[in-house]
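== Protein entry: sequence and backbone fold ==
=== Local backbone shapes as whole numbers ===
==== Amino acids and backbone structure tokens ====
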Amino acid sequence: MIDARHYSVRETLRNGLEVCIRSTRPDDTDLLIEAFRKLDPESVYLRFFGPKKEFSAAELKNFREADFDTRVILICTVQQDGQEIAIATGTYVRTGDAVAEVAFLVEEDYHRLRIARRLLTHL
């Protein structure tokens, strides 16, 4: 059985960029906040169904406390100048037997590289 809390794979995108797709950790909050700040308002609007300037305390708590059973969050990162940078997230929340809501957010510079498709496969 896969240990979802410690899931991590490396993949190469079709443009040759190597990414890491892994489960989130409670200490990833800063990565998430930094990635959110870089997003176009339109991307934020489409993902959250309205304008949004920052994450609420409840949203950050949900992010930190993913149980990897009913709520799974994967993050896609790249290495830039020796730092891990978040470029995408994929989430599912089980809402019933064999039913889940899925959501993706990919930073605009990385669109059209099939990152959301890869995240879905790993979710």
Residues 5 and 23 are 6 Å apart (CA to CA). Strands lie at 8-12, 18-23, 71-80, 83-96, 99-106.
